[in-house]
Design a protein that fits this description.
single chain, alpha+beta, 4-stranded mixed β-sheet, two-stranded antiparallel sheet, 5 helices, globular
Length: about 160
């Protein structure tokens, strides 16, 4: 890790997954100071995330991580797509998703028409270790879904 080699004293280190609970848990205090694209941390105060966090903690005696958030919202988005399409046929659901708006843990979300990508926001965060088994994530700036994903004409997607 960059921290163990003294690199974080010389350079700012940025990763794409350094804020993931499993990464921070594995690195402990060595994750301190690392910047990361942050897709999810339980403290995000948006949509119905706090209700999700409380229900998850009640059922699992731990806070949800990014993978739990993705699983929950993905199932909810598929279920809403099925409901909107009035069908479980994958082609019917796919045809319905483009432009569809629905609630997510982050609030209202929309699928782009060009590639059916959900416009999830992300955050720039920094791992800050104070004590305990892992660093916390300090959220620095929110990036909208529109700004977080490449424009449709740059993806090469043929949906």
């Amino acid at each position: 890790m960059a921290n163990a080699q003294g690199l974080t004293d010389q350079k700012k280190v940025m990763t794409t997954t350094g804020s993931f609970q499993v990464i921070r848990g594995a690195l402990g205090e060595k994750a301190d100071g690392v910047y990361s694209g942050t897709r999810y941390v339980p403290k995000i105060d948006a949509g119905d995330n706090q209700e999700f966090v409380e229900a998850y903690k009640s059922a699992n005696d731990s806070e949800p991580g990014n993978f739990a958030r993705v699983a929950y919202d993905s199932i909810r988005m598929v279920a809403n797509g099925i409901k909107e399409a009035g069908s479980t046929d994958p082609d019917d659901v796919a045809d319905t998703l483009g432009g569809l708006k629905m609630q997510s843990l982050f609030g209202e979300n929309e699928f782009r028409s060009c590639d059916h990508q959900a416009k999830n926001p992300v955050w720039v965060g920094q791992n800050v270790y104070e004590s305990g088994p892992m660093a916390d994530v300090k959220l620095i700036e929110k990036v909208s879904g529109d700004d977080a994903i490449p424009p449709c004409d740059q993806t090469g997607c043929q949906l």
